[in-house]
Each structure stands twice: as C-alpha cells, then as structure tokens.
Amino acid sequence: MKLFKGLFKLLGIVVALVLLAAAGLVGYLSLTEYNPDATETVTVTEAALKEEPAVGEMLTVVTFNTGYAGLDRTQDFVMDGGKNVRPDSEKSVRSNMSSILGALDTFDAQVIFLQEVDEDSTRSFGTNQKEYYRRGLAMNAAMAYNYKCAFVPFPWPPIGKVESGLVTLTELNVQNAVRVSLPVPFEWPVRVANLKRCLLVERIPMKDSDKELVLVNLHLEAYDDGEGKVAQTNQLLQLLLAELEKGNYVIAGGDFNQAFPDAPEMPSVEPDGWQPGLLMELPEGLSYVYDAGNPTCRSLSKPYSGDRSATQFFVIDGFIVSDNLKVNHVETIDLNFQNSDHNPVLLQVTPQ
Questions:
Q1: What is d(CA 124, CA 162) in angstroms, rounded to the nearest whole number?
Q2: Residue 146 in contact with residue 219, Cβ under 8 Å?
Q3: pLDDT at 22 over 80
Q4: Among residues 138, 192, 302, 335, which is most buried (max CB within 10 A)?
Q5: Quick check: helix, strand or coil at residue 98?
Q6: Based on the number of CB atoms within 10 Å of its own CB, is 238 exposed (0-12), middle (13-18) or buried (19 or more)?
Q7: How far is CA 254 from the centre of its chain?
C-alpha cells in the first residue's frame, strides 16, 4: 500500500512539474509575443540599380514560395500529414538556397516576390536567406516578418525559434515600403506561437508621371477554418481598390493558399488531405493572373518521388493586377519541386 501511495505521489509531482513548465512556457511566449502595429515602415537596402518603370515598357515579375529552403523533394511536413518537422541538415538547406538563387538569376526579373524566407530560424539552421538572395542577385531588398517567435513548442521535435517572412527584391527605385498586418484567425494561446500574416507593400514612382507602381507581396493563411483567408483577402482587395482609385498601377503576387476562380481543378489524389480555399471574384478593375498549365504547389504529406499521378498538386500561386497593366505573358516555371514545395510563377506586364 505504501508503495502505491509513493508511486501516486511521485506521479503527482511529475504531472505538477509538467503543468508548471507548460504554464511557464505559455507565459513566456505570451510576454514575448510578436505584436506588430497595423502598419510599420520597412527598411529597404541599397542597390546599384534604381530604375523607374515607364508607360509602354515591359516589366518582369516573379513570385516564389521558397519553403525556407527546407522543403525540397525529399521532404514531407507534419502539418500536411507527413512526419518531418525540420529538414535533414544545414548542408541540404544551403544546397537548396544555391539552386533557388540560380533559378532566380535566370529569370531576368525587375521584381521578385519571395515567401517563407528565413532570417534566423532553428528549422533552417540559422541561415540568413534574405541576405543570401539579396547579395547573390545584387538587388535591393525589403523584408516583412510574418512568423517571429522565440520558440515554437509544437509538434515534436519542436520547430523552435522562427524568424521568417516575405522578401521583395527589386532593381526599381523604391520610395517607400511598409508592412501591413492582416487579421489573425487564431485565439490565445495558439496565437502566441503562430504566424502573423501580412502584406509587404512597396511604392515606386512611374517615370514622367505622377502615378506609382504599387507592389504587394503576400502569403495568406493556410491552416485556418476558412474565415481567416476570407478576412485577409478582403483586406487585400480593399488596399488594391484604394490604389486603383488613385490611378496607380498595382501588382499583388504570392501564395494565396486558395485556388483561382474558374481555374481547372487539379486531379484529386488526396481527397482527405489539405485543401485550399477558393478565392472570391474580383471587383471591376482587377484581374487574377495565373497559369493553370502546371502546378504551383505540391502536397507535403510525403516526399516527392517524381510520380505526378501519385502526388496531390495545387495552383495557388499567382497575381492580381490592375487593368491599366497589359498582361503579356504568365508562366509557371516547372522546376519539378526540386528545392521547394512550390514552383515559381513569372509574369510580364506593360503599363498602359
């Protein structure tokens, strides 16, 4: 009897210590929670080129979710039904970074929207990916954090420290860059270690004009019940319509985590797996621009074998452009998910 009492007492002490540690962690994360203002100015690094776009001159814009250089074809991810939390090694991360940079360099783009770029995260072994891409492409860069947490305690092993976000690289003459907060669909305490989605908005003066080119880099909600995506999309459209009313040229690009209206559906391989939402119809003056000929994203429920018939694909990356921009070309660049779970999308437009 004494033995059982002793075991129960020991068990009680262990449970109490675990609960105390959990409460302490939640308290620490609550005190250190990333709580950005509704709008914050973002620093733009200097670069050799500071060109001004002109009416009648074509612009090339690329969007690419780089998956923090940790979601190459050998990887899966636990949040999508896989097993892994982090990539295998720093060597693999750096190899992916090198290949991503090489691909970006071939596009000859004036503007590059990147999502899931780590600056100092445990999952990517502390690599400063923003600086790597900025220096490698010799372009100016701005970064807006959308995931910043001292320690993400889930799943297991835990994700750990995360500093990650949106990066816009350009050789254009950026006059102003701001981080615009989007609605957060999660409540405390889940919220304290979760993403704080945002828009990265840059303004570039048009040559010989009082109008501006407004660039919006975005990465909308992935794992909410759907209401978060709708709220974030509504705020995005309000911002774009306000710029449209001023007569500005608008290009918004990134990972919508939603399918485009009227786009043909990808074959259903994982009907019970993660599914994107459906983007709402756009108001007059704005258009979705995407390429449904190739997938822009793959499921992370398992590593990618190259067998396309056995892989769930999505088309969730693309652009919204104002109607004063003539769309010359849009193309999903098929890199076959070698170094990221996404493919880049290239857009060519001409201001009218």
A1: 9
A2: yes
A3: no
A4: 192
A5: helix
A6: exposed
A7: 7
Place of tokens 């003459």: 173
Structure tokens at 298: 């793959």
Tokens 């020991």 sit on residue: 10
Interatomic CA distance for residues 10 and 272, integer angstroms? 42
Q: Considering only 10-24, 102-116, 127-141, 212-226, which range has the smallest mean pLDDT?
A: 10-24
pTM metric for this prediction: 0.94
Burial 11-24 (b: 16+ CB within 10 A, else e): eeeeeeeeeeeeee
Q: Do strands 277-278 and 345-351 pair parallel, antiparallel, or not at all (unpaired)?
A: unpaired
Rounded Cα gap, residues 309 and 226, in angstroms: 28
Is the pLDDT confidence value at 349 over 80?
A: yes
Pairing of strands 176-181, 160-170: unpaired
- By percentage, how much of the chain surpasses pLDDT 90? 83
Rg (alpha carbons) of the chain, rounded to whole number: 22
